[in-house]
Design goal:
The complex is a heterodimer of chains A (225) and B (231). Chain A is of the alpha+beta class. Chain A has helices at residues 18-34, 65-76, 81-88, 181-189, and strands spanning 5-13, 39-46, 51-52, 55-62, 91-101, 127-134, 156-164, 172-178, 210-218. The longest helix of chain A is centred in the N-terminal third of the chain and has 17 residues, at 18-34. Chain A starts with a strand and ends in a 7-residue tail after the last strand. The relative contact order of chain B is 0.20. Chain B contains 6 helices and 9 strands, in the order E-H-E-E-E-H-H-E-E-H-E-E-H-H-E. By secondary structure, chain B is of the alpha+beta class. Classes of the chains: A alpha+beta (225), B alpha+beta (231). Chain A binds chain B through residues 12, 14-16, 19, 22, 47-54, 92, 125, 127, 129, 178, 181, 184-189, 191-192, 194-197, 200, 207-213, 215, 217, and chain B through 9, 11-13, 15-16, 43, 45-52, 90, 121, 123, 125, 184-186, 188-196, 198, 201, 207, 211, 215-221, 223, 226.
């Protein structure tokens, strides 16, 4: 079975065009990719106060390699080329990665038909954390025992984990949902020394793993929270 | 006064040892004949930019003392300690900073205790801010106005702790470092989860109008190490 592919895009947006960019993704890109079976899953923006300002993360699920090739063509020469040119003027640049899920990713098999192809009803904004983990052998990385365990009082709940679709020498990306504020604030105010918040899969990773983190927020219309 | 700002990138397993070396060996050795002190030591908190890392500010009284610090590190009394630290870290990023005109952070190096009377416990947003082209001095002026207005507020959840810029020979120029103290954890999670919603960013608001001055910055959430001389 072909694994679903994930386009992970980090957009460095010009501050004054932040909302123009959001509108262009919500109103044009999301519905357009859905026409060919792909789905925009997450629209996330870096929260002010932690991480890089005006960085937007989009994750688009693409059913297979052929669908990815069609999307590439549409963005370069097809019906989305004009959209690409316009959003290029709204950002300093972007970094695009083709990813697959790890075997232990809690997102698991995803039925793209179940994901809305256009912005749906507004939902509560939630906070996510994305870790980029370097220094891990992606072929040998163990399954963190509690990945996907969303019960209990943990601050972090792993939502999904990805590795590069090409090669085994890149970074592991782990997406967490952060607990509601009343639960999170106590952990935020405590000194954790050299440790992480509860629910992190990092302790299960081999020694030598180093993290870069982003605190992210969904928009109210992001298809997944 | 200048500040040597260093980001120490660490391996998780070696971070505790590195911290010990900083506290017990490097910090006490730095003063030498005076004019140089390790003044502010923080570590990244979960969710911050990079984990684990330590950020330090070393205050240096003037230019000659800065040159002397370099000589001591390369070939003098600090050489062995510097080598010991280098062996325990992944890398280091070093800048030389001077205070912006409104910054109030200027520790008294002659009287500053080696260790705080009470364990330091401060939580901060540490921002590297790149001005837009040609906007460094307008940005400094605008931040001064923000600072002066904040003085009129009896209590704020966020207090501007220090503002600095890189100087010639000290890294990317122009670049600013703004350090803001978070007065309580609930204010921190409120900012991250609900701060600056789209509907609030309108003409006349700081976050809207200041985009003419800068729109590229990198924030770190950091907490003082308990032994940090200042917080």
């Amino acid at each position: 079975m072909n694994p679903v592919l994930f386009l992970h895009d980090v957009h460095a947006v010009i501050g004054e065009r932040e909302f123009d960019f959001e509108d262009a993704v919500r109103d044009e890109y999301g519905p357009a990719v859905a026409e060919d079976g792909a789905r925009l899953l997450w629209y996330l923006h870096a929260t002010h106060g932690a991480g890089e300002a005006y960085k937007i993360i989009t994750v688009t699920a693409v059913p297979d390699g052929a669908a990815w090739e069609r999307l590439v063509h549409r963005l370069r020469r097809g019906d989305l080329a004009d959209w690409s040119a316009r959003v290029d003027a709204m950002r300093y640049g972007s970094t695009s990665s083709l990813l697959v899920q790890t075997d232990w990713s809690p997102l698991g098999a995803i039925d793209l038909d179940e994901v809305p192809g256009a912005a749906g009803p507004e939902r509560e904004v939630v906070v996510l954390r994305e870790d980029t983990v370097r220094g891990v052998d992606l072929l040998e990385s163990p399954v963190p025992a509690h990945a996907g365990d969303t019960g209990g009082d943990d601050v972090l709940s792993c939502v999904a984990a990805f590795t590069p679709a090409l090669g085994a020498d890149g970074s592991l990306r782990v997406l967490y949902r952060v607990a509601p504020r009343e639960q999170w604030t106590a952990a935020f105010g405590a000194d954790h020394g050299w440790g992480d918040w509860s629910g992190s899969v990092t302790p299960a990773l081999p020694e030598g793993a180093c993290l870069t983190s982003r605190m992210l927020r969904t928009t109210s219309w992001s298809p997944l929270a | 006064m200048f500040f040597v700002h260093e980001i120490h990138s660490l391996m998780p397993a070696r971070a505790p040892k590195y911290e010990t070396l900083l506290r017990e060996m490097w910090g006490p050795a730095l003063p030498g004949g005076g004019g140089t002190r390790l003044v502010w030591c923080v570590r990244s908190v979960p969710g911050s930019h990079t984990l684990p890392e330590i950020v330090t500010l070393t205050a240096v009284a003037d230019g000659p003392t800065l040159v002397e610090l370099g000589e001591r590190t390369r070939a003098g009394d600090l050489r062995a300690a510097a080598a010991a630290l280098a062996a325990e870290r992944v890398g280091i990023t070093r800048r030389v900073l001077a205070p912006l005109k409104f910054s109030r952070y200027e520790p008294d190096l002659a009287t500053l205790p080696a260790t705080p009377a009470e364990p330091s416990d401060g939580l901060y947003i540490h921002d590297f801010v790149l001005p837009r082209i040609g906007m460094q001095r307008p940005y400094e002026g605008a931040m001064e106005q923000v600072f002066l207005r904040a003085l009129d507020v009896e209590y704020s959840d966020f207090v501007m702790w220090g503002g600095f810029e890189t100087v010639a020979g000290g890294g990317e120029v122009p670049e600013n470092l703004m350090i803001t103290q978070i007065q309580n954890p609930a204010a921190g999670t409120q900012l991250l989860s609900h701060g600056n919603p789209r509907e609030s960013i309108k003409p006349g608001s700081w976050l809207h109008d200041s985009l003419k001055l800068r729109d590229t910055w990198t924030s770190r959430l950091v907490r003082t190490l308990p032994w940090s001389p200042t917080a």
